[in-house]
Fold this sequence. Notes:
251 residues, 9% strand, two-stranded antiparallel sheet, single chain
Amino acid sequence: MPIVWIRNLPGLSATGDANDGACTFRAAIETQIEIDYQLSQAGRGLKYSSDPTLLIKEPATTDNEIVKGVGNALVVSEKGDAKLLEIGGTASAAVIEYVRCLREYALESVHGNRASADRLTAAQSGRALELMNQGLIWLADNLRISYGEGALLQLARMILRASNVYRLKVMEQEIGALDPTARLSLKWPRWYPSTAEDRQRDAQTLATLIASGQISRETAVKSIADTYDIEDVPAELARISNSRKNVRKGV
């Protein structure tokens, strides 16, 4: 059975080897363990605050069992005292703030997204989202090299070679032999779709460039072909020309 061995992340590192590559989340593992430990200690502190320890100084002699609660009075001698060993909530708040810093550090170490959805007050443009998630996009770009250029293309080349040996079918339709020497490349879409404001700015920019004679109409259509799902640029230009002629004729 033909297989493709994929090595995670290009190149070697201190946490990887020549066979498997570097671990994507290795840098955040110890930080995550520290987060789990701190949260467990914060939980213990909250439980202690809910049930504090009772301290009695020189209690009066009584045969009754001491039961904690607001409905049970403690009788002590004249010089005696009774206190509840309570702790404040500042320690728990400090732990939560420390954990929040650890989380941001862990995300940064693995190129994760540190942005908080609570701080987004309005819809952002596609470019703004790319800048906000730049670290995550860098990681995904590296993974595209490993799993795209290093794996998907090899599988596609295997299919080309197999088509010359076996009868292949696509969607129940038999296809003929494919050229095994054909050049293949991967075409990745944009990370974030363009918003209406992005498309409006692009249209204004292209219209200005065409009017000033700096680019051709064909180049302008090619630049927006992916956004508007234009597969055949010459055919689209022909349709634009026909539409203009019909408008002039009043059709």
